Predict the structure.
Amino acid sequence: MLDWFRNVGVAVYTVGHGMWVTLRYWLITYKSDRGTFTDQFEYPEKPVPVAARYRGFHRYDLTTCIACDQCAKACPVDCIYIGKERVEGAKGFKVTGFTIDYSKCMFCALCVEPCPVDCIFMGATHDLSCYSRDGCIVDFSRLPTDVAWGRSTLNPTAVAESKVLVEPVHGGPNQ
């Protein structure tokens, strides 16, 4: 019988302690100097601070990629599309397109490990918002090299500008 009262006492203490933690964090939200999210981080101008091992939007180096398709094969949701052409007079392939569909991607980082030349890795980009589904498709081969490589974050403006077609895809129905 004494054990039963001891267990009831521990249960009441545990629930009370949990409710105290909840109440404490709830009251913190009403502090007058707390500010909004954009006041604290100046979000559009400065990136949100993320943890060192954060798995954000991918970073890709087109100059070192050998088009081996290992990342596309390792992707469990098939969101990586690689376009390649055989190099004339040499062995190997030339990458013509490297596209990731972020409407499918689950940011698991399984595509990073099998890459033999370490040309793809997870970046620190927190947000790459868009207004349509085709905005979630990023073709890294169309991004300018100075924007696409060398930084830990991806510039959403450069991604949007890379989607604008400068030349038509084909010359018309007779070509």
Observations:
- The chain is about 25% helix and 15% strand.
- The helical segments are 2-28, 37-41, 70-74, 145-148, 156-162.
